[in-house]
Amino acid sequence: MKDYVYPSIFFAYFFFLILLIGAIFFFFRSFKDGYWGAEGEDVKYRMLEDDGDGQMSRAATSARGESSNKKDEAALKR
Amino acid sequence: MQGEASIRSAGEIPVSSAARANESLHEDTTAKLFLISSISYFFIVGIIAVLIAAKFVWPQLLGTIPFLTYGRLRPLHVNGMLFGWLLAADMGLMYYVIPRLCGVRLWSEKLGVATAALWNVIILGAVVSLLMGWNQGLEYAELPLPLDVMVVVAWIMFGANIFATVATRKYTQMYVTIWYCLGTILWTAFVYLTGNFAVLFTTGVNQANLNWMYVHNAVGLIFTPVGLAIAYYFIPKSSNTPLFSHKLSMIGFWSLAFVYVWTGAHHMLHGPISQWLQTIAIVFSLMLLIPVWAVVYNFFATMKGQWDQLRDNVQLKFLMTGVIFYLLTCFQGPMHSLRTVNAIVSKTDWIPGHAHMAVLGAFSFFAIAGCYFVVPRIFKTNLFSESLANWSFWLLLIGGVGFFVTLWLGGFWQGWQWNNPAIPFIDTVINLKPVWSVRFFSGILMFGGIVTFAYNILATMVGSKGQSEKSLPV
């Protein structure tokens, strides 16, 4: 009987390697996409409005400021 | 029971016409199907859970009828709770959350409905096959090969739908919930294929090692990220308060991504695997404290000044209790990986106590909160009963704490007895009967919580037919 132990373990680690490479790529990509920059916090305010079924609390609105609304509008792809 | 005043959702806010228009963007048929089926399985598999807990106290219960023996009911309980209830509920919640965070419709509602149908076929197939004893004999990977293949197909359908929805999103930056959801889809592919297919070609120690990598990563790279995705969405939404720090949530996400996969071998400490592999598992298990700190601090800081909302917001009660259970279970995990602690608790009742606190105490509490938030909205009605929701919370909390604490203490006691060669093994079994009795009665309380939750949600769905849109809760 052929021994498949090592091929299957190599398969598992190869699969893991693919994911590791993907994780490293998207980690560095997240810097380029601005998640760690000055505007990295805007998305947490927008999610409160995204489905339109909530109104932001006063604290949230004042913390965000008016300028962020304009940034979000600019960020819209379409 | 359904008076307007008494059933008002906490933090209720008038709904604008713009909000209604935006709501009509989403069909939510897939989310409805997944939530209805998952909550039904939660109830049905809950009965199995009570039965097997009773068998610890009364081993002769149900006699020797093959499909009612512990060996067949236990895998059905594990797989039913993991894939029938929790993962299906999480998928239903993702079908609700992702389109809203992306500001677009779900890419294909038809594909979503087909996925829900296939998922139900898989779960029903699992019930039949596991009761018949068709079992691969591997922890968490008991399903027969044809059902494994169907799971992979269903997961590809789910992943394609979510990825395509995210690809068409309105906004460039993705909220952390989307990151965790996409991570879950990719990691599940890796974990499931490894744990259910690659493992079949291995033998002996290598098979055990690969199996435990799968078991631990099933919790850490499937249920943890999708559970956190839900918590990151519903804690800000339920409290109407922005997340404390999105950058901190990113630190939590990336540290989880790089650390978690190496920890599974800590279940094999003192076993016949390489010492270097054991040490790596210990080191990475301790490093798990980084993502855990990032997540828990973020949630507690988000709730700063908002704790009073817990008085009358049942979703927040579930969510924040789930966060505390998450903190506790993620402190237990690294401690369990230490060689000295592991020598006592490994293979004892401490392990199911730990696993139940993760899967039930943390991630099921998040999913239940999500159901209480989502179901009234997608069925455009009010929750059937706020007081019943509170009953479900307290029953699950009291039963859960009784269950977890009993098994940790009982597990330690069991481990100490096992480490004493003067005590015959059968005596350790007899000694633990009081522990298992408390476990059973705690299980009854938890099942009461499941029944009230399931009844409340299903009554909300059924009652929605007569509701007008004026009563749409927020």
Q: Layout of SSEs?
A:
The complex is a heterodimer of chains A (78) and B (474).
Chain A lengths: L4 H28 L9 H5 L11 H7 L1 H10 L3
Chain B lengths: L16 H7 L5 H29 L12 H33 L6 H23 L13 H23 L8 H21 L7 H36 L6 H14 L15 H13 L1 H14 L11 H23 L2 H7 L4 H29 L7 H33 L6 H7 L1 H31 L11
CATH architecture of chain B: Up-down Bundle
Helix content of chain A: 55-70%
Number of domains of chain B: 1
Q: Largest beta sheet of chain B, briefly?
A: none
Secondary structural class of chain B: mainly alpha
Mean pLDDT level of chain A? 68
Low-pLDDT parts of chain B are: 1-19, 468-474
The largest inter-chain interface, given as chain pair and residues per side, is: A-B, 46 and 53 residues
Kindly, what is the distance between the CA atoms of the first and last residues of chain B, rounded to a whole number of angstroms?
A: 20 Å
Task: Estimate percent helicity of chain B.
Answer: over 70%
Mean pLDDT over the residues of chain B: 90
- DSSP strand (E) fraction of chain B? under 5%
Main CATH class of chain B: Mainly Alpha
Global geometry of chain A: elongated
The number of distinct structural domains of chain A comes to 2
Radius of gyration of chain A (Å): 22 Å
